[in-house]
Amino acid sequence: MEKPVINIENVHYRYDHELVLNHINLNIPQGSFLAIVGPNGSGKSTLLKLILGLLKLRSGSISLFGVPIQKFKEWDRIGYVSQKANSFNSGFPATVYEVVSSGITKKVGLFRRLQTHHHKEILAAIESVGLTDFLKRNIGELSGGQQQRAFIARALVSKPDILILDEPTVGVDSENVQSFYDMLDYLNKELGITLLLVTHDVGAISNKVSHVACLNKHLHFHGKTEEFEKLKDNELSGYYGHDVHVLSHDHHHHGSEGKM
């Protein structure tokens, strides 16, 4: 593992009077695949928004690729797929190709013509998420999982070093969840993209992620997946504030025991 691509030090965040993040310290090494888990309202989405510069940091520090976030300019190095990506209007008249190419127009400018190499990059991004056969299909005709893949391809087209995903399997049916995680595994291991994933279903992905961070206002745990799997149910329940059962250890069976 190399030097951290994201370094978070002593970050506190509150909305009005409610403290949402308390004393968060987190290093995310290059090439890692980190799952952030925790109950609803635990500050997971707030943490992502701070990393993405969507919320202004009030105390503590965040640096991206060694640069303090206040001075960071290379935002195309960070891809982001929000939770709302798959709740758009399904009648939206755009093909998979058009949706993915919109990720490049940010870079080249709205009215500039795309060059041949841009088209190659769009096709490569679509291929990396396994949607080549759906290039010309209208995005509204795809399943939830396929739509989510299209939005990931849109984020990938600017060749980010880090990909941040907020609950990406919401709306993906259970039969397709595993192949969706296989695709993320490919992006991480074969393409070398650092992945940061907020998820409830850590059981289904425990054999893919390298690190787990358990967040509930405090960072209760951050370490390698093997260490997380050794936690006792009562320790985890203490972090969550309610009963939680640790992951399904049988990685061949992706049932619902891992749901949290």
What does this molecule look like?
By secondary structure, this protein is α/β, with parallel strands linked by helices. It has a domain at 4-85 and 162-240: P-loop containing nucleotide triphosphate hydrolases (Rossmann fold, 3-Layer(aba) Sandwich). 31% of the residues lie in helices and 25% in strands. It has helices at 44-51, 96-108, 116-128, 144-156, 174-189, 202-205, 225-229, 233-240, and strands at 4-15, 18-29, 33-37, 59-64, 67-68, 78-81, 162-166, 194-198, 211-216, 218-224. The strands form two sheets. The protein has a six-stranded mixed β-sheet with strand order 6-7-8-3-9-10, with helices on both faces. Strands 2-1-4-5 form a four-stranded antiparallel β-sheet, covered by helices on one side. Helix 5 links the parallel strand 7 (162-166) and strand 8 (194-198). The longest helix is centred in the C-terminal third of the chain and has 16 residues, at 174-189. It is globular. The model is unreliable at 248-260 (pLDDT under 50).
